[in-house]
Amino acid sequence: MVAKNSIECDSYNKLSLPVRPSVLVDAVSREAIVEKIKDAAKKWGIFQVINHGIPLSVLEEIKDGVIRFHEEDPEVKKSYFSRDFSKPFIYHNNFELYSSSSGNWRDSFGGYMAPNPPKPEDLPLACRDAMIGYSNHVMSISSLLFELLSEALGLSSEMLKSMDCMKSLHVICHYYPPCPQPDLTLGTSKHSDNTFITILLQDQIGGLQVLHQDCWVNVSPIPGALVINIGDFLQMMTNDRFISVEHRVLANKVGPRISVACFFSSSMNPNPIVYGPIKELLSEENPPKYRDFTVPEYTKGYIEKGLDGTSNLSKFRI
């Protein structure tokens, strides 16, 4: 197993994970990958994983499913249009349409696939099997990722999972149409994610950028790779040891661009757990930098603020 690392002015960590999580038994190999994840999460807040075990056919099928739905008859899509995010499946333009200063150049659909997945009949036929199949694979790889992230913090491998960080999975599938004047808009405005982590599948068109040391850096697509980025919740819980990466998506004359974002967050759904900086990471020299919070409390302010280019984290700093 090879773990590749390329931290330069225009790149970030690329990691090779085992084909099957269960074969990750070589302590030396695992320790090397944990070190690279720690370095990426601390300096960049993002890395890509390859050799993750999700078949290429599954990746292609979910991307095809996104295209099939978005190219359905408008009347079919209209029947799913809603801004009620508690529904099992919704189609919408921009969740932040009425809170941000401008809309983004994309359409989206999705729903919560865990812990209470929708009934198959609640999902459109065009993407039903693809969403269910892909979500199952993502839940499997996320288990390994949360273990490695826990170890990268110097904690037991089960720590983040025991705090229900991977309990809730919200899948959003984006469709960015060709834009005739991409210099006048963005596919998605600058923001960080209100998640623990986000697992992103993007096609080969590109356009995703992350902000690193005041410079926008292209996240160049790697065939078969998944992009993993740290979210706001994990930055707060790690007391800034890991950073929640700010990112955006450029509009493009080429398209449609397809991406599938898997958000590990319960968002506005009921969740009584109170989170805060993990006590094992604190000391007299490293006191808590954030007050405790619940996920719905944080998300309410995040949605009301919209994707306005500012971080919601500052509201929770002590």
From TrEMBL:
Q: Reply yes or no: does the keyword Iron apply.
A: yes
| MF terms in GO | dioxygenase activity; metal ion binding
Q: From which domain of life does this come?
A: Eukaryota
**Keyword list, A-Z:** Iron, Metal-binding, Oxidoreductase
Domain Fe2OG dioxygenase residues, every copy: 167-266
**SUPFAM superfamilies xrefs:** Clavaminate synthase-like
* Xref: Pfam families: 2OG-FeII_Oxy, DIOX_N
What InterPro entries does the database record attribute to this sequence?
DIOX_N (IPR026992), IPNS-like_FE2OG_OXY (IPR044861), IPNS-like_sf (IPR027443), Oxoglu/Fe-dep_dioxygenase_dom (IPR005123)
Cofactor list: Fe cation
Family annotation (PANTHER family): 1-AMINOCYCLOPROPANE-1-CARBOXYLATE OXIDASE HOMOLOG 10-RELATED, OXIDOREDUCTASE, 2OG-FE II OXYGENASE FAMILY PROTEIN
Identify its protein family: Belongs to the iron/ascorbate-dependent oxidoreductase family.
What this protein is called in its record is Fe2OG dioxygenase domain-containing protein
Organism, by scientific name, is Microthlaspi erraticum
Source taxonomy lineage? Eukaryota, Viridiplantae, Streptophyta, Embryophyta, Tracheophyta
